[in-house]
Amino acid sequence: xxxxxxxxxxxxxxxxxxxxxxxxxxxxxxxxxxxxxxxxxxxxxxxxxxxxxxxxxxxxxxxxxxxxxxxxxxxxxxxxxxxxxxxxxxxxxxxxxxxxxxxxxxxxxxxxxxxxxxxxxxxxxxxxxxxxxxxxxxxxxxxxxxxxxxxxxxxxxxxxxxxxxxxxxxxxxxxxxxxxxxxxxxxxxxxxxxxxxxxxxxxxxxxxxxxxxxxxxxxxxxxxxxxxxxxxxxxxxxxxxxxxxxxxxxxxxxxxxxxxxxxxxxxxxxxxxxxxxxxxxxxxxxxxxxxxxxxxxxxxxxxxxxxxxxxxxxxxxxxxxxxxxxxx
Length: 328
Prior knowledge:
Elements: E1 7-10, H1 14-25, E2 30-33, H2 37-45, E3 54-55, H3 59-64, E4 71-74, H4 80-89, E5 98-101, H5 107-119, E6 123-130, H6 132-138, E7 141-146, H7 151-161, E8 164-165, E9 170-171, E10 177-178, H8 181-210, H9 215-225, H10 233-243, H11 265-276, H12 281-294, H13 296-303, H14 317-327
């Protein structure tokens, strides 16, 4: 394969696919690889059909398709898979080439990996990518850090595909700092988001349990909130979910298991705050709330003995809704 691709991307789950399509939209040729070859083939024959995206059946083929200095971006599960791919890529790359980790890696791992990759004469970038599937496709916030010399090499692609903000359409991407700085900022960003979601959950709980509001009423309230000071992605999707009905006409939300998962970034934020003596109470409590929600069996057992209060509110509902809006 001729050296024609601007960047190689490994890992074709939804985030990886959408980033590749986003890069293609902005004029970059992307070579893609996935350990399960069938996923790569399916992507090339469907969403990537007719684009400049090219496929590779091996890491050797992927690296051989890249312009120098080579840029290889990992969109794989955080942890051991990142280390495995680094080990496989290092012998195939040359001094000055760049390995990029775009997953939710622990910043301490990124510090270690930056040192290791640099010791091999290569450059390393650990970058947060925020915005979920839609952001990856149409414009994420990107938080790169690592080897300072890598920034000029990845900057044109990253700032082109990033979301744009303000009157000047400034890219939501800039160099954060060396070593694990990019993943540290992404970690704190996620921790703040944990807190945001917990605030929304507690407001919802009061509206539903104390004010007795149904899904349609909740949809209307959050839709109004999303038009003012609380205008945001999280408030918007909260409003949307209240409006979704199941086939039988009942709200889908009432059928979703009340057990939240987590990938670790909120917990890591809390641990970092504790180590530095910073009272990050909202984030830590939101992590504990998720942990509590995950104890489904224990909560069901406890509910047989601990009934809790039956909240009643007979005063002005609009007053408490205004107070909730102000609190959030």
